[in-house]
Specification:
Distance between the termini: 48 Å
Number of domains: 1
Helix content: over 70%
Number of strands: 0
Length: 272
């Protein structure tokens, strides 16, 4: 009778985790290199949230009492616009998967030894890079407009984590849609249909207190509401979380895990 060697078991586990992480970051790095070679995309993506802050925020700031918790409306709006920009970038991320299938890249992924879940998580991480670039621009714009930002390192780290979770969640959701529709034309149509309802049925630009009852129910099951809630608590010096920052992150993690599981099963079917 032989006895398992604990040290050998730990080594095997460590090597397995290391190999898995290598596959994840290899996929993320490939997407990151695409972004480096096309910096114009970052600039073009940054225009819309800046316009929302400058134009929409500038006008709506004149409406007294719209923000909750006694915040100036621009302060209230800034985290919502950050979450919006993350959503808009991530929700169209699935179209790159369709391009990869058409170019034959997806077939090479499928014959690689990388676990399918590692491919999905790698793509989610690469989407987070785009989300973080949006955050940098919005922080600069918000600071220039006088938003009372909280620049504590621990709170900035929490904002980064929320952006990574939100980007990963919505990009994985986008990948699932791409696996279903399989064509760029259908995907663009569905993506445009989904973005606005997700955005407006959240607490991004107005508080829960002004919503009708049915919209409050929809907002309470909308992951974007929890991302905005967490960002509002961590980005602003006077910000506070309605649901609790722990609950915000926990829900985003749970939804992300479920979506990654679904995408892992569906992703290989794109080659069919």
């Amino acid at each position: 009778m032989t006895t398992a060697n604990p040290a050998a078991s730990k080594t095997i586990v460590a090597e397995t985790v290391s190999d898995y992480a290598t596959h994840v970051f290899a996929v993320a790095d490939a997407e990151f290199r695409k972004l480096i070679h096309d910096p114009w995309e970052l600039f073009s993506r940054a225009v819309q949230p800046v316009l929302w802050l400058v134009l929409f925020g500038g006008v709506m700031a004149r409406v007294h009492g719209l923000a909750s918790g006694g915040l100036p409306y621009l302060d209230f709006l800034a985290p919502g616009i950050l979450a919006q920009s993350v959503l808009f970038v991530a929700i169209f991320f699935g179209i790159s998967a369709i391009w990869e299938r058409d170019l034959g890249v997806l077939h090479r992924y499928m014959v690689s030894p990388a676990p399918r879940s590692a491919l999905v998580i790698g793509k989610a991480l690469s989407s987070a890079v785009r989300g973080l670039s949006q955050a940098f621009v919005i922080y600069l714009c918000a600071a220039a407009m006088g938003v009372n930002l909280d620049l504590q390192l621990t709170h900035i780290a929490a904002v980064v984590l929320l952006i990574v979770l939100g980007s990963g969640l919505f990009s994985t959701f986008s990948l699932i849609i791409a696996c279903i529709v399989k064509t760029r034309e259908r995907f663009m149509g569905i993506g445009q249909v989904l973005t606005m309802p997700i955005f407006f049925a959240s607490n991004a630009i107005y508080p829960l207190s002004v919503m009708p009852g049915w919209l409050k129910i929809v907002s309470s099951v909308n992951p974007l509401s929890y991302e905005v809630d967490g960002l509002r608590a961590m980005m602003l010096r006077s910000g506070a979380s309605t649901f609790g920052i722990g609950a915000d992150m926990l829900l985003l993690v749970i939804v992300s895990v479920v979506l990654i599981g679904i995408a892992t099963r569906m992703y290989p079917r794109m080659t069919e």
